[in-house]
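Let's practice the habit of predicting before peeking. Look at the sequence and jot down your guess about where helices and strands might fall. Then scroll down.
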Amino acid sequence: MKLMIVHTAPTEDTVRIVSARRADRKETTYYLSWFKAMSEDFSKGKRGSVVPPDPNKVRITIRLDGDIIAHFKRKVLEAGGGNYQTLMNQALRELIEADTGPLEERIRKVIREELRQVSEPR
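Done guessing? Here is the structure:
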């Protein structure tokens, strides 16, 4: 069994690996005996999420400007916790819902804007 000794340092939102090396024989013996002495049995453990993901959510990869991400992370910190991705989802949903109303209302809004532009003196 190959055992690694990893030194980490927590950052704002992640854990940074400072250094890593292979454990020597003495360390391996020590840590293996320590693991065996643990009362928890993880032999039947499963990898992955403990809570199943929401079936209505879709996993994507997206590149956003750093200041946008920082804004939402800052909002989460100000709120005392939460998830910045959830805040981004809520902001997008509010934008969509504000933009989509009854068709008649949207047509009236467009006509008013067009009439205002035509009636403004040049």
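How did you do? The helical segments are 25-37, 66-79, 84-99, 103-119.
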